[in-house]
Amino acid sequence: MRRRLFGSVRSRATLGATLVVAVALLAAGTAVLLSLRSNLVGEAGTQAERSAREVAADLAAGTAYDQLSLDDDQPVQVVDADGRLVAASEKLERISGTGTDAVRPQTPGRSPVAGDDDDDDDADDQSLEPGEIGRNAKFHDGSATIEGETADYRFAEVPVEVPGKGALTVYAGAPLSAEQSAVNTALTVMLIGFPLLLGVVAGVTWLVTRRALRPVEGIRGEMAAITASEDLARRVPVPDTHDEVARLARTTNETLAALEASVERQRRFVADASHELRSPIASLRTQLEVAAAHPELLDLDGAVADTVRLQHLAADLLLLARLDAGEGPAGTRVDLAALAREEAAGRAGVTVEAADAVEVAGSRGQLGRVLANLLDNAQRHAGSAVTVAVRRDGERAVVEVADDGDGVPEADRERIFERFVRLDAARSRDDGGAGLGLAIARDVAVRHGGTLTVRDAPAGGALFALRLPLA
User: Fold this and answer.
1) Residue 370, Cα to own-chain centre: how many angstroms?
2) How far apart are CA 310 and CA 277, in angstroms?
3) What is the pLDDT of residues 131-173, one digit of tens each?
4) Which member of 91, 297, 397, 401 lies 3.0 to 4.6 Å from 374 by CB, making a disulfide possible if both were Cys?
5) Would you kindly state where each structural domain of the chain is located, as residue ranges?
6) Which CATH superfamily is domain 332-469 in?
7) Bridging pattern class, strands 396-403 and 462-469
8) 3-class DSSP assignment, residue 321
9) Hey, is 163 helix, strand or coil?
10) Listing from the earlier edge strand, what are the strands of the sheet with 350-353?
11) Are strands 396-403 and 386-393 parallel, antiparallel or unpaired?
């Protein structure tokens, strides 16, 4: 169940978006809390320093300890150079985080409380003139109890040099309750708001991806129906958008159209091949049956001709099957000029024009078959002469086979390369063959990275041009 749930694109997109937003919210919330706390603690420190400097100013002015104006609502301590508490807020009951934890002033000559002289009062770090207040304050975090209420405070430590009293240190605290309250409130809001926001993000992402993927589900459903019905004429719906899904649908339809055309071509091929094979087999069977009944009537030449024709047709069909299966040409070097002379040898009325060797990479047998088919076709339609020209044209090798016959009508110049196609002037199976020669020639040319086209010859007949990459 878990694998099925997270196996969908919509589930993964929703989970991914939610996790990204959760990480972003966590980082932003942490930064906000830290910044808020830093600002509020800084404000508390400023307030504590202000209070400490007010007391230090009174001391520098010669105000007696018992005459100091100390805020009873805030913890204040005055400590001398020996670490003794010489003045403090009247309602102070307990304190920590300052130079001494004493809350009642000590009389001169009394030993300081144990542990109170740990710092030796960092006021000695600053060399002050009599009546001068230290410019730099130090800050500490601690707590204090005033009238039974304990709270956390930010303490400011300010040194002052008092004439006749020596170096004193003033500790004044400002409460951190505002900072704690603000941080707690912000944290509560985040703990409540973040899950709600994540829920909204997950819901919106789920709905948006569902809407975005709905056309994909339509394509999938239609493809499943096409697979079940084997009806390649059907097409998937194309959404009225210009996004990747629409392009996927159009590409799928193009693939289906190509597949439909391929299957239809294969069906026609099988039907035409069966029809073409049926005639020589039936003729050969008839002759053999007649010969069996009447040996004196055996047409041996006709039987041999039908057998040869059947053999050639079977070879053509086998070659087409190999080409359709994607059989690639061999990588040997073939001299088209020499190959043209070999194929033209012994053919009446055929001349070859080739001065230098023109080499290409490919299958010698298949290229020889192309030249033989082109020569057969040219001789079949020529009036008296066929010319083969082999030459170089840039990075291409060109073989042109021209005849002086009637030529090929422009409307039929692509159709003649289809399988089992014979034009009206060559419909006779005895004269026109099975209609596979030119189809084989073009397929082989394409497999070798070349082209095979036809146009009018200078002598008025047809000129077939084979172009292949040079080796």
Assistant:
1) 44
2) 7
3) 788 888 999 999 999 988 999 999 999 999 998 888 999 999 9
4) 401
5) 1-225, 244-324, 332-469
6) Histidine kinase-like ATPase, C-terminal domain (3.30.565.10)
7) antiparallel
8) helix
9) coil
10) 350-353, 386-393, 396-403, 462-469, 451-456
11) antiparallel
